[in-house]
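Sample intake — Phosphoribosylformylglycinamidine cyclo-ligase
Collected from: Treponema bryantii
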Amino acid sequence: MANYKESGVDVEEGYRAVDKYKEQVKRTVVPGLLTGLGSFNGMFEVPKGIKNPVMVSGTDGVGTKLDVAFQMKKYDTVGIDCVAMSVNDILCSGVQTLFFLDYVACGKLDADVAAELVKGVADGCVDTGCALLGGETAEMPGFYDVGKYDLAGFGVGVGEKKDMITGEDIREGDVLIGLSSTGVHSNGFSLVRKLVPNVNDPFVVNGTDTGKTIGEVLLTPTRIYVKPVMEVLGKYRKAIHGMVHVTGGGFFENIPRMYPKAKEGKKQLISVIKRASWDIPPVFGELIRRGADFDNVYNTFNMGIGFVLAVSAKEADAVLEMFNANAHKYHKDYCPDMKAYKIGRVEYAKGEVNSQKDAVLFED
């Protein structure tokens, strides 16, 4: 007679993994959490004082960046990417994520590896200020290759309806403020993996060996923008008219998403981006050197800007100053300090907007 373990599922290893998860989950406890890990569901209390609550959710995965982690045998940072991809999306409406749930899937569970993945998720939740409410670990022998894991998750936040940032207030003359990325973040890795067949190659910048491998640089976690942006919103919410998380598709696919569609007979708002207005991380130069098509990199990668805000011209300098003055408060050992830049402006299109590249113009 066959049993579950002989079919490839080790429930004892699953129990061991959950025990390890519990230690990480303890670090993410925040007010409003009503249940602990191990319940059939997770409960979270809606914050008091919200008169007309709106639920805001976001979901995403780490994607093929995981393959770099497998090759490097470094599993403790991709969980931060998993959280970041969702909570930064939720942030675009001006809402902080309250809780997050993750999903780990594999062919054969190794509790130590799974615990490292969840440690990263917990780190991301701590950086966000949200609870890790629960999740699922699925062992599926024969479906996933042994040694390979998938990691995804979703978050939920709640905000006051009247305070939602929808893009409807964006107007011509607004200033585009860009917040620096930590590098490639978690998008474009299908191309990155073709360009970087050996993750153990030394990472050389301007002829100087940095002492890191390119794999280490690529595994730098996605920046979580929640705390610095929420702090600015606390003082300048009315001046922030729209926000964008620059993910897959880069500038061209993401920045136009914050603009409302022009009403009949009206012109469409577009972005004018000033080249060389921010520092581009060296990793992008290396990817171009390895063969990334320069004409398309802004349609694939974030190119050093991971989050963009459309800000009233009157308050733009004050917002910029606040971001840069507070950057040290959110320092993390695993990523460089955030910088804010004026990267462009909002204008009305001079003609028809028939493609994404008509909606984002670059000027020198």
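Post-analysis note: The chain has two domains: 11-160, 174-362.
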